[in-house]
Amino acid sequence: MRLFREQGYKATTVEQIAEAAEISYSTFFRYFSGKEDVLTRDNYDPLLIRAFEEQPSGLSPLQALKNAMVSEIARMSEDELTTMRERNQLVIAIPELWSATVNGMTQMMQLIAEMVANRVGRNSDDLTIRTLAGAVVGVNISVMLHYAENPDADFAGLLEEALGKLENGLGL
User: Fold this and answer.
1) Which CATH entry fits the domain spanning 1-39: 3.20.20.240, 3.40.1440.60, 1.10.10.60, 1.10.10.10?
2) Residues 36-88: pLDDT tens digits?
3) Which part of the chain engages DNA, per the record (predicted)?
4) Exposed / middle / buried, residue 159 (Cβ in 10 Å: 0-12, 13-18, 19+)
């Protein structure tokens, strides 16, 4: 993030990222497909899965997802939240990063569908399961955009509020 902040995304090279991380150029590519992957890769999936699986069985799938997501965000430090906001701001501003992020959101939708399907004993390709997963991903996108534009906002609070609105039928 420091290099992107100082030089801009386009001017920052993989070589510079590898040097700053004190790794070789080839080692960089063992972990990342390119510099866009540094900003768009989601490392929180295992945490989300664990938190979701720990939710009480009496909760609806949406309640369990909301609790799991909010609890993991609430555990993030101020530095992690600042980095996430800065990363989101870059992603929104740079078309190739936005495209990679949308692709990642599709993968997130599939992950959520699989988690929910396992919880309720249905198939992940069930239309209702996919619709719920898509709605949750949509909420994440709206919160991501809002947080990037409102840096003083409480990300965990926004996520909880937005998922609560979804849970309550949005009330439009």
Assistant:
1) 1.10.10.60
2) 888 877 777 788 889 999 999 999 999 999 999 988 888 888 888 888 888 88
3) 13-32
4) buried
